[in-house]
Structures are given as structure tokens and as C-alpha cells.
Specification:
This protein is an alpha+beta fold and 886 residues long. Helix content is 40%, strand content 22%. The strands form eight sheets. The protein has a seven-stranded antiparallel β-sheet. Helix 10 (305-350) packs parallel to helix 15.
Amino acid sequence: MDQNVAKLSQSTSFNLTNLEECTEESVYAPGHIQPHGIVLFMQRNSLNILQASENVEQFFGISADELLGQPLPGLLGHDQVQEIVRYLNQEELNIHNSFDLKIPLKDGKIQTYRGTLHQQPDGWILELEPQLTIDNNHSIDFYHRLQTVILNLRSAIGLSDLAQTLAREVKAITGFDRVMIYRFEADDHGVVIAEEKESYLESYLGLHYPAIDIPVPARKLFYRNWVRHIPNIHYTPARLIPTNHPLTNTPQDLSACVLRGVSPYHIEYLQNMGVAGTLTISLIDDRRLWGLIACHHYSPRLVDYETRKTCEFLGQFASIELVHQQDRELNVYRSQAKTIQDQLQQAFRRDSNFIEQVLTENASQLLDLVHAQGAAIMLDGRLTLVGKTPSEAEVDELLQWLLQQNKERVFATASLSQLYPQAKQFKERASGVLAISIFLSYAIQKSYHILWFRPEQIQTVNWAGNPQDSVSIDEIGKMHLSPRKSFELWKETVREMSYPWQMAELEAAAEMRNILMLAVLEFSQAALEQAAERAAIANRAKSQFLANMSHELRTPLNAILGFTQLMNRSPHIPEEFQEHLGIITRSGEHLLTLIDDVLQMSRIEAGQLVLSASCFNLHRLLGSINEMFTLKAPEKGLHLSSEWDATVPRYVCGDQAKLRQILINLLANAIKFTTTGKIALHGKAFASDDMPSGTNRDRATNQPDIKPTITLCLEVEDTGSGISSSDLESIFEAFMQTDRGRHDRGTGLGLSISRQFARLMGGDITVRSILDRGSTFTCKVVLDLPESLDFEETETSDRIIGLETGQPIYRILVAEDVSENQQLLVTLLESVGFEVCAVQNGAEAIDRWQTWHPDLILMDIQMPVMDGYEATRQIRSQQSLVISHS
């Protein structure tokens, strides 16, 4: 029979919540004491006697009623009370709390009492026990005996040997008929692991006792007090006078007293066992009541104070040794587990990309780690079974059940079917389960699990009597505690349980979880790095693709738009075709805008967006944009107005192209989403030092050389459809449009690109809007003020450009592989007055340059045979060679 039984079977596991008739009051404050000593309760400052046990008259010849209210010196004498006061003033009263009192009796004799003090919130309890006659050599003999006991305990090999040695030595010291070492199991039931007894007594070794035999209040007292002595269970109780605490009228707490009376439940229990006297010594580790040294005698037996203190010392020393023995045995296992863990960790370090492979290749070590017969490894949705396990479908269902429970780091049970009834179907393979889980990201539900399995282990538990006899049912069906009448061997067969998981095995599983966590994190880091590398490659490929697509799409579009312009200039085009050409032009320009938007967004995502600063005439820029939309607005019946105040400087330095695109996007959107009313562009500027909060000023001013700057604030106000409050921020996200915007052509990139441009220029774009009443977009950008005005402004004109009369003939070489674009360029340039020659690739361009000597070469970049870059490089090098020889 295995000593470790984690739980009772379903048939013998009781809910004790409502059955604790052995209450704290009946244990701590029974209202009486055992009669082999007396108890006095004294007021804190005056030491007046306020409560006494009724047997005081048998010892002192004065009734308890006569003592009440009397000062203590009247009973014990002034000198002895001074001795008690000296003890009361000790800081370490709990350690040095024992003194002798000599009290004269009526017959003239002197009786020696052993006194013990216990502090209460409002007074002191004094226990007095008559001292037995002890010869002078008794203490020396006990000292030598104690030395021998300690040496024997330290020489014990293993926990079992230590417990048996302890039982033997305690029996020799106390003289009890039977001494048992009683250990509490995980579910608080007890088992006798060692026994020393008289030969005529039947053995209790290996018997199990249900947890209900020692109720919770009694366990708490065993944890607080090292020794509990009941010399004669058939004692006549000595009541306290008065029964309740005299100051609070509540039951007097006697939990610290050795003389404390015994619960009737426990008395009946001992009577049923045939025991007449007992001594119980607690075995305690740092966290819990580990067990008991239970001494039974079958006739009354009074143990003196010195022997009890010796037993208390042995209990304390044995507690340490028992814990050390357990630790030594656990350390052997922990060392083995550490070796296995190190092997697995090294395997993970060698290749963290194959966690599943490492675990399956080291399956035997994985099972040995926690003494399991099977394991299931679930890594990010991939299941691998090792050893003796349920089927894949059964493991999947079990995992789903585990995930629905509290997500514990370590889950363990020796009786899975009690928690998960479906487990009865595979109890022969998995009655016990130990699981570790890792949840890296709840958002994407990534999880990693290892489940270890133990099969059903049918066990026969030897009980000291039928545990079910501890409960009786009265005539109305209510259950009550009832001390068992029989302690004869009663066997129970326990099914659907595995061997229990030990604490060290749970620790090993938790450490394995940490190792797996590190491996998963390393794997995730490697995966992230690989993903980042793939993303970078994909991003570069996307940028290259978009650049190529831009080139490939722009090429035919430029030809379409160019020939459309040429046709528009011809006086021979019929009037009805003019409208068709206008449609072609507008559609081509729209398509070109879409291509530009996608390419710009690609550059933004790739972090390739940079400013191209130059000095320009801001007034002229605003005026040209106003002229651009002056024709478009009236087409929809809208009134367009533009004004900027005197704070807006004429000349500024910044990225003119990006500022132009921002304003074009904002005004185009205003016209698109406004059907009636007006559109207004307002401008103002202020010094950047006075910039309102919320602008991205640092990016604009973080320059090596501090230059004077201004913040340009442009507002585009419309009376259009407006924007709902829920869409005010989403409209700036790439490819996002409002419900109204989805019905209009566009990519949904305009506002996103414009905001990125504005932020790159040290500002931002914000919006205020009321649904169905209109919107106001505010753009702020930071611009430098030029230090001088010695730059030339390029005048633009809509007239046809041509060579003035008397100009020389200039030769222009066009290198272009697309015939349509080639033809367009030749036609445009010849119409102006240039002499033009066209070739198909870079190699032809070099040949023609060498023989024809053009004044200018328009070189395409992407061409067959030789691209524009290489052709330009070779021409440059040949030019340098010619210059150096001339």
C-alpha cells in the first residue's frame, strides 16, 4: 500500500463544513479544566483574583467563591507574588515561563507547585500543578538520555528510519503503551508511518484516519501548542467559577493552558479506542502541521512537567530533522530533475526553432522529469503524443476544457474524472494529469501546453474503522459528527485515481514551464527577426514593384495626355471631338493622381519621405491654387473665396510641392463633398515661438542652424455634408473613407498623405465638423524665412513656348524605347523648333552621340540592351577623356 494517498474516494469524502460540532469554543473555551491542577485568572494591574477553578478548595482548603475579588498575595504570600511579578516583567515570558511556588497547607505541610503564566488581553492566567517528588539524579539522567536520543535521530537513514527511531525513543522516555508517528497527507487525512508498542497490542502501522477525526479547531491548537496531555480521560471536570470571563461575560479562552478541559467529542473518541491517557506532541514545519507523535496508554498516566518539556524539545528537534530528511530525499529527486532540465535547456539552446522536435526527441527525459507514463505536447495548435496517452481527439477535448478553467500556470490532479467526467473513458491511460501552460498573446490566442499523464492505480486503503461511521444521521435527516465505535481494520478500494503528484514534481513542472517559456521567447524572437527580415524584403519588393508600376503606367498615360494636348491644339479637330478629348484628359489626369497617391503612401510606409526645401513666393503659390479651383467651383454652383492677412509673408523656404499638394487635396475634397454654398480658404501666420500647443514643432526646429521660422495656418472651410464625430480621426487613416466618400472615386489616401506631409513639415492637419452643415480643415506647417531675397522667381505663362527668331538650331537626342512616348517627344520638340533624333536604347544613344553630337540628351532610365544610367556613365567618361586630351 503506497503511503501517499492524495484524496479519499468519492464514497468517503465528506463535506465537513456543516459537521464541525467540535467547535472552536468547545476546544478553546470548554468552561472547565482537568482536575490535576488549578487555574486562576487575575486582573492585569491589581492581580486580584477574578476567576478560579472550583477544585481550588481541594488543594488550598478555600472555596473558589471566597477567593474571588481577593488579592493574590492573600493566597500565595507576598514574597511569592513578588517572584511572580518578576516573571511578569520578563520580555521573554513565553520562553522562560516556569517557576516553583511553595504553598503551606492547613496541616502544616508545604506543597510545591509548578507555576505557568499566560498573558490575556485584560489579565493573566496562572496554572498551578503539584510537583511530583524527583530525586537529584533525575535531571542528569534525562540530560544524558536526551543526548542519546538526539544522536540516534541524527544517525537515522531516511524518513522512515527517522520516524521509527523517534517513536522508540519517545516510548522509552514517557513509558506509554503505544507511541505512533502520525503524518497528515495532502487532503488532511492521516496515516501512521511508524509505531512502537507493547507486544500484546495490535498494530496500527499503515492505518489511515480520516481528516474528520481531528477537526480544524483541534488542528489549529496542535499548531500553536507543542504538547497536549490528558492523564485520565475519565476525569471529573473542574468548572471555572464564574464559568464566563468575569469582565466580558464571554467564554474564557484556555487555549494556552495545559490543564484545559477536553471536548466531549474527543473524550468519546478515545473511549471508543479503549485509551485511558494520552500525550500528543506536535510535528511542525514552517508552513503547516506536518504530523503528530501520539502516545496512548490503556490506564491513566500522569506525565510530569520535566518529561513534557523534554517531549516538547524532542518534537521541535524532530520537526527540523523530519523536514531535513524530506528535503534530502527531495533533493535527490530535484538533482535528477535538474539534470533532465539542463539537458532539455541545452537542446533548446542548440536549436530553439524546433521546440517540438527537441521535446519529442527527448521524450524519455520529459516523462522521467515528473514520473509520468505519457505526455501530450501542444505547441501553437500542433499536437504531439508521447508514451501512454488518450487519443488525439480526447486530448483536444481535454485541452479545451482546461482552457475554459482558470488559466493556471501549473494544473494537477490525481483524480481527473472527479473534475472532468469524460476522463472515465480513458482512466487506464490518464487518471492523473499534470499540465503546464503558456499564453503569450491573448489577442491572437497563441498558447503552448505540456500535459503529463498517469494511469489509474487501483489502491487498497486500510482504514482504522469505517470512515463513514464518523457521521450519523438523525431522525430528521441531518448529519452529525459521531465518534466511531470501531477501529478495526476496514479496507476500501480506491479507483479512478493515479499516484498523486508530489510537491517536488509540481516544482519540476513549474521549472520546466520556465525553461519552455525561455525557449518559446527565443523562438518568437527569432521568428520576429525572420518576419521583420521578410517584411523588409517584401517592403523593398513592394516599393520596387510600385516604382516599376508607376513607370509602366505613367509611360502610356503620358503618351495619352501628350497626344491629347497636341490634338487639342490642332485647328482641324471637329468641335464634337473637343468634348471627347476633354474627357480623355480629365480621366488620364485622375488616373495619374491615383498612381501618385499610391506611390506616395508607399514611400511614407517605407520611411522614404523627405523634404525638398527651396525658397519660393508663397503669395504666388496661394494665388495659383486659387486660380486652379476658380473654374472648378462654379461648375458645381459654389462660391470660392481666398484671403490671407498681412501676417503671411511673401517669401518663405520649405517644400513647395508638398504644401501645394496639401492645399490641392483639401480644396478638392471641399468641392467634392459640397453641393451648395461656399468654400473659403483663409491664411494667417505667427512666429513659431507663439505656436499653439499640439503642433509638431520639434521636428521643424530641430536643425543644426537656428533660422527664423513662422507657422503658417491655412483653413479650408466648406458648407458641405460634414463628418460624423465617429469618423473625425478615421478619415486620416490610409484607405479609409466616410460612407459618403465611398460613393466618390478615390483611393482614400489624400487626407492621410496630406497629414503625413504636414507633420513632416513640423505641423499637423485637424478638422472641425458638424454633420450636414460643413467642415473646417486646419493645416499648420512650419516654414523658414529666407535670410536674403536674391533668388530668381520663375514666371509661368500659359502661352505656347517656342524659339525666338534668329536662334541657332539646337540638336536634341531622345533615347526612349516606348515608341508612343518617343513619337510624342519628337513631335512636341519639333513643333517648338528643335532638331530632334530618336533612338531605342542606351547603346544606340552612345553611338548617335559620338557621330551626331547633340546639344541635349533626354535619356530614359529603363531601356533594353543598355539602360540610361550606364549610357550616361559611359558618355560622361568619354567626355572627360576628350577634355583631358584637348
